[in-house]
Write a structure and sequence with these properties.
alpha/beta, Rossmann fold, 2 domains, 5 strands, binds zinc ion
Length: 305
């Protein structure tokens, strides 16, 4: 791919056209008869959620109900449609470059949302990976959804609804895409996950494991976390696997706690100075309710998330 000079406006990145699941599309066409002001899309992969959000924008704007081939649908696909706003990493990066905070950049959209769409359809504002929104942005969004915004609809994308503010979800219609195929974690990560489940049952064996010098590096730790996230998604969706079954025993509150813990541990590991063993110890103990928590070796200080 050719690099563009920094002074040139970057062209919109070519989006791989990920197909939208047929049942999801049918569901969206039904929903479009009375479009909910806010739609949460969970499940699928990040690319599938994004494609579904653009699909929704087509469905509520294209005169043919989202044909995918007309000029309007193509503009949406290229994110060049005037009634489509995508709030993603590029949106926040651009604001930052202009010296504007992410929250202020979103605040500047308030007058836009106060107006109906330019065209005959709906203005669609999509928040990609909405679980990562800064709390002040999430709150701004919540206030926005508390008022009617004629002619506007909002889409919040997240791997699972549990990762969004509950108040946002309760104001939204939730559309679940097919869950990603169960892919077994690599053998080493799977073995660590098995050891973690054993630790939750017995209180044994975990600190010896993480305390062994060089036992877990950052890459393995991240694979353990992603393996657990996948099993968590299965447990939440009621899908069966030995690990998902064990996780389901944590109950709804425990699963919610696990989700937060995994997100915080993942964030901690993005800092190159984070001690991997401590993050893993914190993760292992933070999921267990306090009364039954075994004393950790040295992981009592909560990591900042
Ligand atoms: Zn069309």
């Amino acid at each position: 791919m050719q690099k563009t000079a920094a002074s040139q406006p970057a062209p919109a990145p070519a989006q791989p056209s990920t197909p939208v699941d047929g049942q999801v599309l049918a569901r969206m066409r039904t929903l479009a008869q009375h479009p909910p002001q806010s739609l949460v899309m969970e499940g699928g992969s990040a690319a599938e959620r994004e494609a579904a959000a653009l699909g929704w924008a087509k469905v509520v704007n294209c005169p043919q109900g989202g044909c995918g081939v007309c000029g309007l649908c193509r503009q949406i696909e290229e994110r060049a449609y005037r009634d489509l706003i995508v709030v993603d990493k590029a949106f926040f990066d651009e604001a930052k470059q202009g010296g504007v905070s992410g929250t202020d950049a979103v605040r500047r959209l308030l007058p836009v949302w106060g107006q109906p769409a330019h065209g005959a359809g709906k203005r669609v504002t999509v928040f990609l990976e909405a679980q990562d929104l800064h709390p002040s942005v999430a709150n701004l969004l919540l206030k926005t959804l508390e008022e009617p915004r004629p002619g506007n609809v909002f889409v919040l994308l997240a791997p699972q609804r549990e990762r969004l503010l509950q108040t946002l979800v309760s104001r939204s219609f939730v559309l679940t895409l097919p869950w990603p195929e169960a892919k077994a974690p690599e053998a080493d990560a799977a073995e660590w996950i098995a050891a973690l489940l054993n630790f939750w049952d017995s209180g044994q064996g975990w600190f010896e494991r993480t305390g062994t010098k060089g036992a877990a590096d950052r890459s393995l730790a991240l694979r353990i976390l992603s393996g657990l996230s996948r099993e968590l998604a299965h447990a939440l969706a009621g899908q069966d696997s030995p690990v998902a079954r064990r996780l389901a025993r944590l109950g709804p509150l425990g699963l919610r706690r696990l989700d937060l813990v995994l997100a915080q541990a993942q964030e901690a590991l993005t800092q190159p100075t984070a001690p991997v063993a401590l993050v893993l110890d914190w993760m292992a103990t933070a999921v267990i309710p306090k009364e039954s928590k075994p004393a950790p070796r040295s992981a009592s200080a909560p990591l900042r998330g």
